[in-house]
Every structure is written in C-alpha cells, then in structure tokens.
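Section 4.2 – Deliverable D4.2 (structural model, holo form)

The reporting period included a commitment to supply a predicted holo structure for the target in complex with arginine. Inputs used:
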Amino acid sequence: MKFLKLLLLLFVLPLSAQQGGMWIPSLLSGMNETEMKNLGMKMSADDIYSVNHSSLKDAVPQFNGGCTSEMISPKGLLLTNHHCGFSQIQSHSSVDHDYLTDGFWAMKMEDELPNKDLVVTFMVSINDVTAQILEGVDAIPSEAEKQKKIQENITKVTASFPKEAWQENKVRTFFEGNQYILFVTETFKDVRLVGAPPSLIGKFGSDTDNWVWPRHTGDFSMFRIYADKNNRPAAYSKDNVPYTPKHFLPVSLDGVQEDDFTMVFGYPGKTQEYLPSFAVDQIVKELNPAKIEIRDAALKTQDGFMRKDNAIKIQYASKYASVANYWKKWIGESQGLKKSNAVKIKQDFEKDFQQKVIASGKQNEYGNLLTEFEKNYKEIAPYSLSRDYFMEVVTKNTELLSVGYKLYQLEQVYATKGEQAFNDRKDNLIKVQADFYKDFNKNVDEKVFEKLIAIYAEKAPKQFLPTSLTNADYKKLTTLLYSKSKLVDYAKFKELLSGDAKSVLKKLNKDKGYAFVKSLADNYTKNIAPKYDEINLKIVALQRTYMKAQLELYPNSRIFPDANSTLRVTYGKVKGYAPKDATYYNAVTYLEGAMEKYIPGDYEFDIPKKLIELYDAKDYGQYADNGKLPVCFIGTNHTTGGNSGSPAVDAEGNLIGLNFDRVWEGTMSDIHYDPAICRNVMVDMRYVLFIIDKFAGAKHLVDEMKLVHPKKK
Ligand code: ARG
Ligand code: ASP
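Output (structure tokens):
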C-alpha cells in the first residue's frame, strides 16, 4: 500500500519491517512467497495450501464461527484459546466441580465432555467465482438492484457448485465487492472438551492485562473432534470415533528468538484498512468517544456492585468481560490512530491518489471519488452517531432495554409474518431468556439505566432524539420503570408473554418499560435507520470503486483484502517494539514475570499454589529455555478478532505458539497497520505443554502429539 511506502520513507524502516496484511492462502505464490522466504520461511506456498495433497490449511479449522483452532494430534486433538472455549468450560461447571476455577482434564477419552451446539469447520477448497457472481450486474444502473442481482447469483452458485453430500458451499466477497470466492467447507458437530487450565492461568491478568504487553497468560483449552466410522462429520453419538485429520501440526520444543520467522494462520473477522481519511477522522473524533463514554459508565456502575457482592460478581463476570474487551480496545485504537497520524497518512495518500487518477486520464471514472466520500461521510455523521448511541445504550448495555428490544422485534414479527411466526419466536424467547434472568440483577441494571439514559439524552444528536427522552427527569423515569415494568423479573416476563398474540401485544403495550423501549425503537426505525441505510449503500458503492481504482493505479502495492472471517495467512517476525520514548519491550516473557505480577488472593493476579511450587523448584522438565520457562511472545503478524486460537508456526510449519491478543499501542491495526508498533500476542507452546504435563499431570495428551526439535537437527 502507498501509505506503507510513505511510512518507510518517513522513518527509513529496514526492509524486514515492511510487513502486515492478511493474505488469501491459495494466492501466495509470487510476491508473498518471495517475501516469506526472505523472512526465513522454508516451506513453499504449496505446503500451506494445496487441493491435491494435504497441506497446512487442513490443520486449521474455524472454532464455533468466531475463533480459530488447530489439529495437534493424529487422534483429533484440537487446540484453541481459553477465552474461546470459555462458555463450554463454564457450561460444564457447577459449585461442586467448578472447572473455571480449578481447571478440567480428561484423563481418558471416556471422560471427555460433549458440547451441545459447538461446531468446528474445515476449509476444503477456495474457488474464485467472481465472473458468475457479477454476471449481468454491470448493466444495472441502481445500486440497490445491483445488490439484489448479486444476492440472486450468490444463491444460484452456492446451490450448484459441486461438493460432497456432507459438505457446504459459502460465497464471500473480497476487495469490497471486486472479487467473490466460494469456499467448500466441512463442519464437525461432535467436539468434546478435553482440558482447560484454571482461570488463574488461562485468564491470568484478566481485564487489567487484556490488550497489554508484557503478558503472562496461558490462554489455551483443548478439545477433541469425533467423526463417524467413515471419518466424516456426524451429530454427537457415543459410537463416534476420534477424527483422523488430513494434517496435524508437529509441536516445536525449540521455541523462538527475536527475528525468527512466524506465520499465523486463521480466520480474522473484520478490518477496515481502506477507509478514506474522512471516515477515520469520524471514528477518532466522534464514534469511538461516544461508545467509550457509554461503556465506561456501564462498567464503572457494574464494577461498584461486583466488588461488594460475590453473587453479583459471578452473575456479571462474563458480561462485564465482553463489554470491557471492546471498551478497552476502542480506547487503545483511538490513541494509536492519533499517535500514528493515521488521518494525515490517509490524507497524503489521497493526494497522491488524486494525482495518479489525473496522470492516468481516469478522471471520469475516479476523479470525484474523494469529494463524494467527503460529502457522504458528512451527511451520514449524525445518523452514524445516533445509531451508535441507540445500539450501545438500548441493545448492548442496558439489560431492561435489550430485553424490551427483543420484544419489540417480536411485535414486528407479528406485523410482518403473522401469528405462527410470532408464537414460535415467543416460545423460543421464553426459553432463552431463562439464562438471561439467572444472571440479571435489577438493582445493578437500574443504576446502569439511569446513567446511560442521561448520557443518551444529553449527548446524542438532538434532532433525532425521541420525545420520550427530551426533557425527561431521568431519576423519576428510572424509578417508575424499574418499579412498574414486568420486564425486570422472569416470572413477570413469562406472565407478560402468556396467551395469544393479541392479548400478549395488548399487555406488552401497557407495560411502562416496553412502551419506553418502543418509543426509542420506533424513533430509530423511522428517523435514523432508513437514511443511514440509504447513505451507507452509497458509501459501500464508493468503497468498491475506490478499491478497484487502487488495484488498478497501484499494481505493485501490497494490497490485501479486508478481513471477512475467511482463512488468511499473515506473516512476520518475532519482534519487540518501542511503545514510547526510551522504552523497549522484549519479544518474550518468562514465568519470572508472572511471579512479579503475583498478588495473593487477587481475582486477576493470584497464582495457583502448584504453579508456584514448580516455579520455586524450577521443575520445568523439557520445556525450559536456558533454565527459564517462556510464557508468551509477540510478533509482527497482522491479526484481528477471530484470529484468537490461531496457530503460530515456524519456518517449517511446526507449532510454536497460540495467538490470543494484540498489544495496546497497536490495537488500531484494524484501521491502520503500523509495522513499527503493531504486534500480535501468542502463548508459547512450551508453556502450554508444561501446564498440561507438569501442572495438570495430563502427560498422556502430550504423548499424543508429535514433538520436534527443528533447531537441533
Ligand atoms: N482481547 C482479546 C480478544 O479480543 C482477549 C479477550 C478475552 N479476555 C478478556 N479479558 N476479556 O479477544
Ligand atoms: N483477542 C482477539 C480474538 O479473540 C484477537 C485480537 O483481536 O487480536 O480473536
């Protein structure tokens, strides 16, 4: 990309730092393969992805739609993060056997725990179907009609592309609608929990250390895939057998050193690397600050209760962690975008782009792109901001409102799809909301509501505020809703939903809580969403053209498609970084560092007794490196959410680490990747093996793996 080149000129970075990018595994030969070999890779592009023989990609399935995992034994053993398996570990836990606190280890296969609804998906092949998907699209003038035609083509190609009976086809767009790829996939449904360390290891440092380097977290858990007698996907059955993967990763005992080649293979979810400067400016100045302020208030309020009451702490732990994760990320992202001058770098690129358009005589096609972007981003600004306030306050951070919003959608279902659809959805809601109310505390949510509703009313764009919010007395409103509404209690909620559609809707609309949500939701659907969607459709079209123009005008640049939850390769080196003046962070942490953070009895920084004993005795077995035990390391691999659980492999494809996070200063990499400070965080495989073998005494699992010494050949 041009701005990468600009950066190089500005800071005269060594060539080796020119990294970043999330590449399509079937298209590595050429530029990527050359770069990777220059960085030290000993494999070929064909070893990473091949349809003719087994390759690395056959060992890297997506874990339950949102994370990545890898095969590490010939008997279906699967590794992913602790935070990716968290809800499975939690769901098997009770007061008597609390696996989150104590960890869990199946000492034999019969003890492995089945998981309802957990799936693991392998990518079988990657097929370019751009021509079929875009057939007949160019001739259509209206953008909305274009999109409709594309959807029709996708449905057609998905249904007709050849595959085996047990496989699926999925089409995804790349380069903002300039390329379409069909993936043939295989999804396994019998995936059992094999092991997890205690949270004090798997989540060591918790929210305080989240997004932060130096790190000492053993963020891993283990599962096993089971298949039918033919090694194919099957629903859970006790007759199923351990899956034999086409490929599994050998595990290196030799670890890493600064400057070693690393490659991370996984399913990054979403990036926005090609936004124009106007969009980035809006994120930094308006959208991130608004979302941060809302979550800040919600988190502080919940934390106040959680610290005083252990039952509330348990009820809110998981919700708190997920809200805090992105709250913290946005803070780091905004700081990083400012510090790296992302807006200015984008503006400089845009100047260069404009000149290139003129020089190539393409003013007709691309000459107005940037002014159009500017106009549309200006126009969408108040709608985007109003939308974020609505989403954050109503659907994400106030529990009363989020239940109310589900009921609002239920009312819409009645209006659009009729009584039967209404009843199905209603019955389902009654079932799933049981879990919600188990962890709901009226007093906590009441305080959160009072705070957030005030922020909403005072800070959201005035012209789009519903009348129920303007001039409201927040305190009175809060007391009224939480004393009168039936939404604050499961028994009352069920009572509200009993009866036929007509009587349910009548009761609902009489409920003060529901009526309030409805006023906000109606306002959103009438005054905000339609205009937002209309402008956004234009922006999507502009973004597609902008991408096409960049591909044409910068043919030799390292342009990679934004992440879209499909399998990608990213590569780089093990590398420390300078977070600020006169400070350098080393690339590897050791158990000594965990001991430095140790706070006895603390919920984030306590350390299990057994681990301290092993540390005191320096009893590290074959996992030590010069007498010390490595815990985590960082590299210049370009990763994002969804890459959690991704394997980090060495130059020969041996597993050296497990990706789980990024460093604080580099969290802006989803929007602007700066090779000087963007780093991914991995747990060292030697720490993983040490915990399994020495800490948990589950050596039989290590024995299933293939351990190698690539550096001592
Ligand atoms: N930041 C990592 C990611 O985005 C880890 C999140 C889990 N840990 C936590 N403390 N919430 O998923
Ligand atoms: N922690 C993230 C994940 O769960 C990874 C990241 O955002 O760097 O996918």
